[in-house]
Amino acid sequence: MMYRSRVPALGFALGVAVLAHACAEPREHGASAAVSDSSGPCAQRIILTFATAAEGGEVAALAASAGVGLNVLSHPLPTTYVLVLAAKVDCDLALTRLRNAAGVRAVEPDARRRPNQG
User: Fold this and answer.
1) CATH classification of the domain holding 75
2) Which of 11, 26, 41, 107 is paired with 95 by a 20 to 30 Å CA distance?
3) Do 35 and 68 contact (CB within 8 A), yes or no?
């Protein structure tokens, strides 16, 4: 009787499961619009951190109270969102409005950081 290993079949099944999860991930977290009617001179990708865990409804409420558009790109942590900010005002003013909102810990532009070339 020949013994056949089940490792290749299990490895294949695990690979398919991981791929299926990765393909489903953008549908769960990405491209959901909170408020997107505020188009204008400011269009910037930002990272927003709430003081406590937040759901999509809190992002929509924040967008409405600050008078800006926020489109969710990803939600990597319970308190952190990567968003596209759109506003009819200057980006600095829009960022200040978001930073001063209740329940917001931090708001920063999502920019690549490079080591000091000094």
Assistant:
1) 3.30.70
2) 26
3) yes
Residues 83 and 45: beta-carbon distance below 8 Å: yes
Residue 23 maps to a domain: no
Joined together, the tokens standing for residue 8 give 């290749």
Distances in Å between the alpha carbon of 2 and those of 6, 10, 96, 111? 13, 19, 70, 58
Beta strands at 42-50 and 80-87: parallel, antiparallel or unpaired = antiparallel
Which two three-digit tokens encode residue 60? 């929509």
Tokens of 78: 């319970």
Q: Is residue 98 part of a domain?
A: yes
Average pLDDT (69-96) is: 94
- Mean pLDDT across 96-101: 96
pLDDT for 68: 95
pTM given for the model? 0.63
| Structure token pair of residue 107 | 């708001």
Please give the residue range of the domain that contains residue 85. 30-109
CA distance 104 to 85: 15
